[in-house]
Write a structure and sequence with these properties.
Chain A is an alpha/beta fold and about 350 residues long. The first copy, chain A, has 12 helices and 11 strands. The structure holds a DNA duplex (30 and 30 nucleotides).
DNA sequence: TACCGGAATGTTACCGGCAACATCGTCGGG
DNA sequence: CCCGACGATGTTGCCGGTAACATTCCGGTA
């Protein structure tokens, strides 16, 4: 289970390589930086020495002199949740592809002091940039009141499309349209926590879609992205449910809602419909399988990194490709039994 | 959504601080390192200058001279899954508490070339140690064939207790004992992928417990930790189910199994029982809520970091505290309807 | 044959810390 | 009154790279 490599010898430096190849260290640097004007014979000797000694450049030293590091920090939270997680994964990939290493700083999004502390730790390492992925108001505030000497990119952490896009592609619309087509009129939104930028955006999208489709919102209950909060949201409703369809802020919340509805004697989807957002891998295996909106989190992560790198390099940021959330219809939604056909 | 801090000024160094305080840079270093023999007046001036300039030590430069860095890399995978995730979270905390920063290297556990590449990237930064958390055979092999110059700690990534511990605390035992008490005799294990050390351990624990309790194993199907694989495992079984209880390798797998059983007309728990492992936050909200084994992943992560730090500091590693997986009984398990009472 | 210029390579200083060693000043003892 | 010792602080060199500048070695030309 455990394994130690004693191997006390210090790693080889360019000086070691230079000595082994019988050249000066500058020649080694030149080779490493792809400088063309090196005699083939010399080049071979150096290359061989590098291989021989297993030389690996010390990136610390490098970034000390160049003044620019190749690492970026990502502030995130609760990596247990699927969304943030996937975003992180995408960001990680994109960063790696660009030759950067991503430091993940997990923070307690509700404790300003802890946020401060985490940011402070990160700032000690010289970073090329900072990616704020967890966008609660607390984090936003902490980021805004900190003086970073490096570019910072603040992502909302949840899907966000330009507000001028067509309704059909705007957030929750496809989901509500689907419900409307099934004859549902009265709907309740079990939202994310109000301190989250993404949750608020989603709630607004919900209101807009409901209005657009001529439906009636019978309530907006703030949860906390958890299954528990979905469960409790349903339990908090009066005996005679005010709606026939429930739009949860994410799949986990929907899971809890389904259980609560079952326990209160409602069958999903025969009596009521439930939808989620995210399309986590598990959503297809809920009982019943969940109708949801597929979000391409990895793309969001990649995009965030690209934006940040553009800031770092001082080039215009690449445009956000239009992300169209895809409606995934499964078995948690059905015709409204009370609908006048 | 975006925010840039132009702020081109380079960060303050000890030299800047020294100049501002009218002392030499060595005095600043001394203060920073907690050296006692500094005149109070001088100390105040320096402290003030540090505050004034917002000085933060450049850890790159520091580790360049001291030769020891304060960062460790964690090799992990699929951070989407709850277990590895929580482990990472615990590791992150422990590392931070010890003043280390944890670099998370996500790797494709099945592509040896990608594993190599990721490890190589990590090695360029000078690391104090490496934590291998994703323990597939491929990763294990890659780690073993790489020459790290730093300590490496290889964790199995899943619960593991000393083999000499009492059966009652050994892995899956409590779960199977619970099933036995409910009158179940024939049981099937939906395991994790065979390339995973943790999955194999768990499978062995299953076999041992079944034997110990006088039950009969009617099969061991390898899944891949996913809900899909749990679903398909059930579908692969003959029409007349060979068992009345199904022990899944994790909660996700159990979720898929429950759906498949439902679709095949079996009610859980009235007809058959299903159990998971992990106790993810969602498990309590499955329909029906899942009987499972609670694993303290965060503790595993913390422990792994502590082991690694002990290796780094050359001190004897702290003992593993006995981790007793806790049986969480919910509604996915019930009496065996076929049992002769 | 002396000279010029560019290609190939070497030398040097610096990045921001740390630590060994050097220096300065002051106080107490002989 | 001088000197030693010690406390407080300054100077220097080094860690492993990078880059500006310097030098060497050619061949080609006048």
């Amino acid at each position: 289970m455990t394994e130690t490599q004693p191997s006390v010898e210090r790693p080889a430096t360019i000086y070691d390589v230079a000595r082994a190849a019988g050249v000066s260290h500058a020649t080694v640097t030149r080779l490493l930086k792809g400088y063309a004007g090196i005699r083939p014979e010399t080049r071979d000797r150096v290359t061989e020495a590098i291989r021989e000694l297993g030389y690996r450049p010390n990136l610390n030293a490098r970034s000390l002199t160049t003044g620019r590091s190749h690492r970026i920090a990502a502030l995130t939270h609760e990596i247990t949740q699927v969304g943030p997680n996937r975003i992180l994964e995408g960001a990680n990939m994109a960063a790696r592809d660009a030759g950067y290493l991503l430091d993940v700083i997990t923070l307690d999004v509700h404790d300003p002091a802890a946020i401060r502390e985490s940011i402070d730790l990160a700032l000690q390492f010289d970073l090329a940039g900072v990616l704020a992925l967890a966008s609660t108001d607390e984090v936003t505030k902490a980021v805004e009141t900190t003086t970073f000497r490096v570019p910072v990119y603040l992502a909302t952490g949840h899907d966000r499309v330009p507000s001028d896009s067509t309704p059909a592609f705007n957030g929750l619309f496809p989901l509500l349209q689907h419900l409307a087509e099934l004859g549902h009129r009265d709907v309740v939104h079990i939202a994310g926590p109000s301190g989250w930028v993404g949750a608020r955006n989603r709630a607004r999208e919900y209101e807009a879609a409901v209005a657009e489709l001529g439906m009636r919102s019978q309530g907006l209950i703030h949860g906390d992205w958890s299954s528990r909060s979905g469960y409790q949201a349903i339990l908090s409703l009066p005996d005679d449910l005010p709606a026939t369809a429930f739009v949860a802020a994410n799949d986990q919340t929907a899971l809890g809602a389904i259980l609560a509805l079952n326990e209160r004697g409602y069958r999903v989807p025969d009596d009521v419909s439930v939808t989620g957002v995210d399309d986590t891998p598990e959503a297809a295996y809920f009982s019943p399988p969940l109708t949801t909106l597929r979000i391409d989190f990895a793309a969001q992560g990649r995009h965030a990194v690209q934006q940040l790198l553009a800031l770092i390099d001082g080039v215009p940021p690449p445009p956000m490709p239009p992300r169209i959330p895809e409606l995934i219809v499964r078995r948690s939604t059905g015709n409204n039994p009370r609908a006048v056909q």
